[in-house]
Automatic annotation (TrEMBL):
InterPro entries found in the cross-reference section: GP_PDE_dom, PLC-like_Pdiesterase_TIM-brl
CDD domains for the chain: GDPD_TtGDE_like (cd08563)
GO molecular function, one term: phosphoric diester hydrolase activity
Listed GO biological process terms: lipid metabolic process
SUPFAM superfamilies: PLC-like phosphodiesterases (SSF51695)
Pfam families with a match to the protein in the record: GDPD
Protein name: Glycerophosphodiester phosphodiesterase
GP-PDE domain segment(s): 10-245
Amino acid sequence: MDTVSNKKVPIIFAHRGASGEAPENTLAAFSLGLEQGCDGFELDVHLSKDGEIVVIHDDTIDRTTNGSGKVRDMTVEQLQAVDAGAWFDEKYKGEVIPRLEEVFDLAPPEIVINVEIKGSCEGKLEPILVELLKRKGRLDTVVVSSFDWKSLKHLKQLEPAIKVGLLYNLNLDHHEHLPAAAGTEVYSLHPNMKRWEPKDITGPQAAGLQVYGWTINQAETMTEAIEMGMDGIITDYPGRLKALLKGT
Ligand code: G3P
Ligand code: CA
């Protein structure tokens, strides 16, 4: 029997791709997420020196490649010349830091993509992102999130149709009031919480917001999130969540 048959089925977001089993934020990790049945990707973006949006978590390439240096000081050609896979496992040697456009091209159109802005480079990234979303027809299927809520407000000013999500770490009551602090229309809340209560979900949902929790990797916590009716679960292990949802 389907263990969650009477529950809403959450969107499975592969966090930095299936990053528990493949090098984060690479095309290999996103492909593995698709193979495992994810519905969406979460990924992190920075701007290169020559104005290309690239997919990488840190503001330097040191941790996740065989190179070193700041992302914003390197051209996309330089960024793609380093290896972004072998640090994780030798079998992923040859993976590169993808351009955001390459991830859009890889993802089937129905895959939801949560783009997290890590470094907006003093407001230079936002107009480039808006242009890319329009050009790739991704305004409907991308949610842009950030801890920098000013960056999200900037995006909405540039393109009101864009969906934005608030990232935050705090344990809070009344999450539904957070969009007022952001000063812009908000599509989703992305809380990192140690302990969830049903009202953390139902309050925002009643206010018309989606709730996408992160980073939920253990089966027990996944089950709690499903039972509470979370709209989306951001996980390094999309295959594990898919199996849980299938009741296997
Ligand atoms: O989007 C949620 C989560 O990805 C934020 O934290 O450090 O994994 O980017 P981090
Ligand atoms: Ca992220």
